[in-house]
Amino acid sequence: MFKLHPIPDADFCCPFCEGALQPQGWYMPGMRILADLRCDDCDQEYYGDLPSGHGLCFPMLLNKTTGEVWDQYQASWFASWLHVGYRDRQKTPVPFTSEEFRPIRQPIVLNCLDAMYGHGLLKLVHAQHYLDYYQEYDLIVIVPRWLRWLVPQDVAAIWTIDLPLRQGHEWNDWIAQEIQQRLAQFDHGWLASAYAHSFSELHVERFTQIQPFPIEEWDDQLNQLTVTFIWREDRLWVDSHIQQWRDRRFPGRLGRMWKKLAAQWFPALQEQTQQVIQLAEQLRQCYPQIRFVIAGLGKAGGLPDWITDLRTQTITEDVERSWCELYAQSQVIVGIHGSNMLLPSAHAATVIELMPNDRLGNVMQDLLLIPEAESRFAVFRYRFVPLESSPQVIAATIKSMIQTLPFAMIYLKSFQQTPCFNQPEVVTKRYRQSRLRELARPAS
Ligand SMILES: [Zn+2]
Questions:
Q1: Span from the CA of 105 to the centroid of ligand 1 (angstroms)
Q2: Which domain of life is it from (predicted)?
Q3: What is the band of 442 on the pLDDT scale with cuts at 50, 70, 90?
Q4: What is the 3-class SS of 237-298, one letter each residue?
Q5: 16-46 confidence digits (pLDDT tens)
Q6: Long-range contacts from 276-279, C-beta under 8 angstroms, 24+ separation
Q7: Could you count the other beta carbons within 10 Å of the beta carbon of residue 28?
Q8: % of the chain beyond a pLDDT of 70
Q9: Lower Cβ count inside 10 Å, N or C end of the chain?
Q10: How much is the pLDDT for 410?
Q11: Fold of 208-239+265-440
């Protein structure tokens, strides 16, 4: 964590004279957490990103007079949000709710405002670190309304700001003044780094109040085999060869005509629906009692009645909670890479993720793994497959995982992590039972 209040620890150089910029204070006009900086030699004032969230990796500098942004890390999207936000800055009041659960003496501020669902959620997950390792401090979490339900119950305070996701990158001077006034009463304040990529100890139940799938009870839970497909409509599981046709570019009018015709001839959403139905059918041949569920953001309907369709176009807290309950009952979750996989992966027993080529560099960023100290077993539980994989390949992968997980728990987990290793007869019995069950299944 970093010193924020009253004068933050900030390490920036003037873009002109290269002298150290002097921090004068801080400013938080929304998702941006900025040091207020000055160069006396050049008589210029700046704002610079403090080390929290993406400000840790890509700190930008903005000239207060000209609005020019210095982006030495070439994170153009992050620079653009700052540039456009400052240019179009607002001062409209927005609903601001403060809940204080205990007296605050040493505040640490965790700001989870963001324009991206996944970024906001990943920042919030970082709360666990401060709750566990900085118990003498008081964690204040700033969240947009859509994240409020996920805030752990043991924080000191929650400041909820009604800022829709699409406005998450806005610069609002009213928000800045509101936060400034609330922190002014304290002699000192700190900033949570929201370094959202270290989750080896994540306990998601502290956020959702829902226990993840009890992997140690895998055998018992098989009575209700549940496989869930995570649906999204803006990144699709479709045949890559057909997609190449769909994406062909032609100049001018021909291009517009082709776009229209391609959408008619090769409707991508229908193709995804067919792929998912094929996957479900393949699994049903092997497991006639399977509960195959589709959940996620999308229009429901058009599926065989034996598939449970939980898609919706209106996300509410109740919907998200019920989806998390479903994930926690799912032996396998399948879905396309993206923030849609964060909460599913944090609750389900195993995950198969379809990876598009253009997202390969972002692998793992969208998964919240259940704490799993044994890396070999973690690789068993969390699989990545190319987006081009057919329903047949995914079905075969799921079948192999369902059939071999009990053995993997024995073979791939270390000695100390498998309590029943102290009782060889239990292991043997379990192995035999699993083996018999496997043999009893119809060949697929
Ligand atoms: Zn200067």
A1: 37
A2: Bacteria
A3: low
A4: CCCHHHHHHHCCCCCHHHHHHHHHHHHHHCCHHHHHHHHHHHHHHHHHHHCCCCEEEEEEEC
A5: 999 999 999 999 999 999 999 999 999 999 9
A6: 276/229, 276/231, 276/237, 276/391, 277/303, 277/304, 277/307, 278/391, 278/392, 279/229, 279/334, 279/391, 279/394, 279/395
A7: 24
A8: 91
A9: C
A10: 79
A11: Rossmann fold (3.40.50)
Instruction: Calculate how far, in angstroms, residue 20's C-alpha sits from the geometric centre of ligand 1.
Output: 8
Q: Which residues surround ligand 1, an ion (CB under 5 A)?
A: 14, 16-17, 39, 41-42
In angstroms, rounded to a whole number, what is the distance separating the alpha carbons of residues 343 and 369? 10
The C-alpha angle 427, 429, 432, rounded to 5 degrees, equals 105
CA 19 to ligand 1 center in whole angstroms: 6
Q: What is the pLDDT of residue 262?
A: 74
Residue type, 132: D
- For 122-131, what is each residue's pLDDT tens digit? 999 999 999 9
Residues 6+ apart with CB under 8 A from 288: none
Q: Is the peptide bond before 93 cis (omega within 30 degrees of 0)?
A: no
pLDDT at 214 over 60: yes
234 CA from centroid of ligand 1 (Å) = 45
If phi over 0 gives left and psi between -120 and 50 gives alpha, with beta otherwise, what is residue 338? left
**Whole-angstrom Cα distance, residue 379 to residue 368?**
14
Residue-by-residue DSSP string for 181-215: HHHHTSS-EEE----TT--TT--THHHHS-PPP-G
Distance 73 CA to ligand 1 centre (A): 20
Measuring CA to CA, which residue among 127, 135, 314, 311 is closest to residue 228? 311
R_g over Cα of the chain: 25
Q: Tally Cβ neighbours within 10 Å of residue 220.
A: 9
DSSP state of 54: G
Tell me the CA–centroid distance for residue 12 and ligand 1, in Å.
Answer: 11
Q: How far apart are CA 408 and CA 105, in angstroms?
A: 49
pLDDT at residue 361 greater than cutoff 70: yes
Q: How do beta strands 61-63 and 44-49 pair?
A: antiparallel
Q: Where are the domains of the chain?
A: 1-198, 208-239+265-440
